[in-house]
Write a structure and sequence with these properties.
alpha+beta, 109 residues, three-stranded antiparallel β-sheet, Arc Repressor Mutant, subunit A, 5 helices
């Protein structure tokens, strides 16, 4: 009997845009507190907590303590960054382009 990874379950977990934004924020390997991840994903603290709990339950993130506040850390060496880059490399879906606000011009220059 062969056991294969449940690709559909993994895809469903990371397909939610808010969770994808959280994972992208963690791609550099740093542990970040929930409040910062909520801001990165443009979520309320309550919504971010629900998404973070699902990512922890799915094995994508670990809870670690940094000072007084718990933070989320990518699971495994290279974890989120390596996995995400592999998914992006395999995908034929074009990257999402977001509009960035224009830089304020300094009239005194």
């Amino acid at each position: 009997m062969t056991t294969n990874p449940d690709v559909a379950a993994v895809a469903a977990l990371i397909a939610v845009p808010a969770r994808a934004a959280i994972l992208i924020a963690l791609m550099d390997g740093r542990a970040l507190p929930a409040g910062e991840l909520a801001r990165c994903a443009a979520l309320s603290p309550q919504a971010a907590s629900a998404h973070l709990n699902k990512l922890v339950a799915g094995g994508f993130l670990l809870m670690v303590s940094i000072g007084r506040h718990p933070a989320r850390h990518p699971h495994g060496a290279g974890g989120v960054a390596a996995s995400s880059q592999n998914f992006f490399a395999m995908s034929k879906i074009p990257a999402v382009t977001t509009k960035t606000p224009p830089k304020a011009q300094n009239p005194s220059i």
